[in-house]
Amino acid sequence: MTSHEWGRVDDEGTVFVRTADGERAVGSYPAGTPQEALAFFTERYDGLAFEVELTEQRVRGGVVGPDEAAAAVARVRGQVDGANAVGDLDGLLRRLDALGEVIATQREAKRAEKARAQTEARTGKEEIVAAAEQIAAGNDWRHGANRLRELLERWKALPRLDRPTDDALWKRFSGARTAYTKARKAHFAEQDTKREGARVVKERLAAEAESLAGSTDWGPTSGRYRDLMRDWKAAGPAPRDVDEALWRRFRGAQDQFFGARDAANRAQDEEFAANAEVKEALLVEAEALVPVTDLDAAKRAFRDLADRWDEAGKVPRDRMKELEGRFRAVESAIRGAEDSQWSRSDPEKSARAGDLVAKLEAAITGLEAEQEQARAAGDEKKAERLESDLASRRMFLDAARRASADFS
Questions:
Q1: Tell me: the pLDDT tens digits for 313-323?
Q2: pTM of the model as a whole
Q3: Pick from 374, 373, 364, 287: nearest CA to 328
């Protein structure tokens, strides 16, 4: 009989393995020696040990998931348990059983990771839905569609939740997208309608502007062009392909009319330049009347100047305000002098001024007598109070006397 640490070969060539449950036959190797028989079945054990080691590495390294790891352990355990091999089969089984705890820990970790991922996915999807609903409630027609597409890609990248929750959030998200798309289409349809209406209005305005381009009725036509420009701005944009063309027509007609008007005004200004020189000379005479010292002489001289001013005719437009302003300033100064003289000679005002002087004088005389009585009685407080009142009344009396003197 030939022995081995984990087995033996009896005299009949049968090979046995030693286990915790005792010996059991694993086979025979009649074609060789007992040593060769043991080597054959030991090599089988080495192959099983390699499988166990490989399984340990994959399970402990987390290369496979818990379910796949459990299946692999069960498969290898089936190969080891009752294997026809010679070696520490019980040790291999213990190593495989020890992986059960590792798999349980990994399973719990995977469960926790899945729960965390679900929580994050739910939070992410709720944020996506809220953002989509905010876009749907707004009117960002330019960027909203692109933003919703980005949100859809984010949704796709997140894992599914439990079916009821996922379906409810998707229904809200899809509803927001549908509502936004519907509102956006309605907005642009309305814009198209408005643009078409603007096209009709602007075609009419351009046609009218062209019909006025040759007018020489400068004032009324200039006013009409202002009205047309106001209506043009109020009309809003027409379709892009026609708006620019209509504007070129409208602007071209305007430029033609105002160019002709400006040329006519320049020619007229040249013609009126000599009139301005005449009026400048008249202003020298008029401004010499101020300040007014002899009102009657000033009035006669100004009437003559006014007649000559009107006979001088029109002046260039850029000189009109300046020259007229200076002439009217002289007229105002003469009128002011006339009003001032009238005020001084008004008999009613003169009488009122004299009456006020008399009343103040009487009041002051009464207060002075009252003050003397107070002093005689030793009431200095009352005397001082009356002195303050007298000072005020005397100041008013001086002013009233000056006013009365102006009317005398």
A1: 888 888 888 87
A2: 0.43
A3: 287
